[in-house]
Amino acid sequence: MNEMTKPQAAPAQPAAAKLLDRAFRLTERGTSVGREMMAGATTFAAMAYIIAVNPAIMSNAGMDRADLVSATALAAIFGSVVMGLWANLPLAVAPAMGSNIIFTYVIVKQMGMPWQGALAMVAFTGVLFLILSLSKLREKVAKDVPEALKIGIQAAVGTLIVFIALRGAGFVIQNPSTYIAMGSLRSPPVLLTLFGLLLTPVLVARRVPAALILSIVILTLIGFFVPGANGKMVTSMPSAILSWPRWPTSTFMALDVGYLFSHFIVALPLLFYFLCAEFFSTLGTLIGVTGAANLRKPDGSIPNATAAFATDATASIVGPLLRTSVVTAYIESITGVQAGGRTGLTSLTVAGFFCLALFLWPIFVIIPPQATAPALVLVGVLMMQGLARIDMTDIVNAVPIVLTLLVTVLTNNLINGMALGTLSYIGLEVSVGRRSQIPAMVWGLGAVFVAYAIVIAQIF
Question: Which InterPro entries does UniProt cross-reference here (predicted)?
Fold first, then answer.
């Protein structure tokens, strides 16, 4: 009887659970294996749209869309695994929105650079970012680039994303009188896009889980019944539901480094854009995610920041080898943090879901632009939120931002916007007697843009 009334000892923790606890410091950060896996599933649902959107955008550069689905997933798997194991942060990594737009529509289609040379440029930027991440130059860059220029560039890219998405879906068309106009409301694909533009923000505002990917799924399914061009439906039937993963053999490691160095002056402003976009995007994501997870140190610093930056940089070197653009940490990781994610195990779970997505590539390649455009519009809107941090009553701040944004969209050229925004910032600071406050990096950037304009004027 006494034997039966003795308190039972708690069951021993499985060896695997103990190993994960020690490796990821689960107990120390107040989480568990189950919670981390749920957080990873939540993050993946919030960012899974990239598997459809990135191939849809980059295939316009002349690359095979099915290969790009695999490349997107493989880049996300590599980046998320390294982030989880090295930095031990709940950050998912995947090809960056914005950079893929610039890669396709600015570098390849507008400037005429072959995609092999453009990939070499992205990889070279990753090398520079890795050097920057492992040195103290990281802090200097973060400090020296004025907030007005950073936010102006980010908002300009967001606006360009919106314009290109609507144009690709046929919602915005050319017009001989007004240059651009809205597509005809008698066109079923335009009506489908319009429905998506109304539906998607409602889903996001209502905080529906996986709102963007849900929007893409709904619009893709409706597209099976919406007539498009040539008597076909907007959405085509997939060749299969599941298939073995497709390795991007046709373009794996197809970088043209020689083209990059033979056209280095033309590529220099773009290198600066990718470097800044990668650096400040990662910095902002790190600050946001670690703050939401209460992971910052008492002095406010970010834990394992060097490892996180170096992971982004390394992934941006591997991404072009797989044939995709810049790879970065995703702000959507905050959704996983809100679900309880606190460690790198969340990132590993995200990588696991991307592994499963490799088998679903026949579905991703049939998603039409009318289904992805509303999601891209929301991404663009989110990229403009930094405007709220700027005092737009100060003309020294307002003019560079507005010029960067409007000139980028109206000329469909990010470099034009960046150049005028930077040069106007220099001119305004000098005019109000603050010449000494202009960082040397900004002076150098201004000189680069002037040289770039001279070179382009000779070429075109």
Answer: Azg-like, NCS2
